[in-house]
Amino acid sequence: MKNHIVRTHRSAEQFPPGEHLARRIAEVAADPVAVPADTEEMIVNRIIDNAAVAAAALVRRPVANARAQALAHPYRPGATVFGVPGRFSPEWAAWANGVAVRELDFHDTFLAAEYSHPGDNIPAVLAVAQHAGRSGHDLIRGLATAYEIQVGLARGICLHEHKIDHVAHLGPSAAAGIGTLLGLDPEIVRQSIGQALHTTTATRQSRKGEISSWKAYAPAFAGKMAVEAVDRALRGEGSPSPIWEGEDGVIARLLGGPEAEYAVPLPGPGEAKRGILDTYTKEHSAEYQSQAAIDLARRMRSRIGDLVAVASIVLHTSHHTHHVIGTGSNDPQKFDPHASRETLDHSVMYIFAVALQDGAWHHERSYAPERARRADTVALWRKISTAEDPEWTRRYHSGDPAERAFGARAEVTLTSGEVIVDELAVADAHPLGARPFGRAQYIAKFHALAEGVLDPAEQDRFLGAAQRAARLSAGELGELSFAAAHGVLARAPRLPEGLFR
Questions:
Q1: What is the pTM of this model?
Q2: pLDDT tens digits for range 11-64
Q3: 8 A C-beta contact, residue 401 and residue 433
Q4: Which among 112, 182, 183 is positioned nearest to 150, based on CA atoms?
Q5: How far apart are the first and last CA of the chain?
Q6: Going along 50-183, which residue ranges are E strands?
């Protein structure tokens, strides 16, 4: 692994295109190195995971709207859309499937200087693979690259510090993954990356304050833009260059400024792509840093007993958790019983309160309006706060996987004055947690979320295809989608018409 130093270069400087970060990423994409067995196994796990959470979200309004837009763009050869038969233009298939995957905030995560959901790469890369007639082997290679680039960018370039949304790393990673999938020349990939970054850089307001359904759409938009960027680059169109390092580029104007330097780690020539192995999936449908908090609450509830006796709860945690999903965000909406599901998902105070009361977490019931508005829940919720602890922040950023932590220490003060303390560094489903996720757990999650959405035979068919993904022929990649059971899609809300019919 080599750290590439990235900084702003003035227009008058000598800065050859071969030294641009976009070109360095393109060279990683073009490297014919084989995909390791453990990387391939984890890619299959994440294909299953994405399909599971997409199935659970299939009739939610944002997903139904995105699907309706895609269905207005039938195309051959095209790509599949979750839940329905037929083929559709690949960028629209990537869009619809991307929203379905992202809607419940229930798939994988990577946390470093920046944070991301690398599984957001899968819809775009898979859609192009289906449309372009590529094999499962090609798909696995493309996804290995997409994860590697996403992880490298998230390790090296912090976006949230400058209030830039994390999907700014997704456009380039998806474009790079598509480049590997198609075996493109590095120069074409470089131009694709530049276009994808330029068109997908936006502020973090989509995840701040009154969080809307755009939180699910933003990654899908990045995937769609990556597909379109590759198409334009294949036709000979260029991109703003250098996109990161230019005098008016992303670093100079949107990130650390003209004097800032970043170190982006990327594998060298012939070095295997293992970035996906540093990412984690979710057992619970909530922001990743809430995963350990949910497990901690479930563990503590028996020790606390009567929750009416709670005077206050302080979650001592990392800077990131405190400022993004805690009271350090200064978002009053995080205590609003009428807040959107997306906002409640980003309130660790709400999540800890419900997990304490219920001893469980459910992707629908735990966010139901009547659940959020229960008087006893609101009372407990408003007794909870977060505080940044430098030690938790240090562990969050630790380079040692055995020490890295995304949890918290809970101090529960009762009205009697008694203080109950417990802590949990990583979620139970984390590779170092109490119950690490393996293939069996991914399959169980799929069955649980697909129940009542896919017929049992369709569940088994999909799982069989996914588990042999690397061996699927070009004509078989359509098997990595699924058909909804009869009547399921009719449960989606009635939608107003848009521009597309």
A1: 0.94
A2: 999 999 999 999 999 999 999 999 999 999 999 999 999 999 999 999 999 999
A3: no
A4: 112
A5: 48
A6: 74-79, 88, 110-111, 115-116
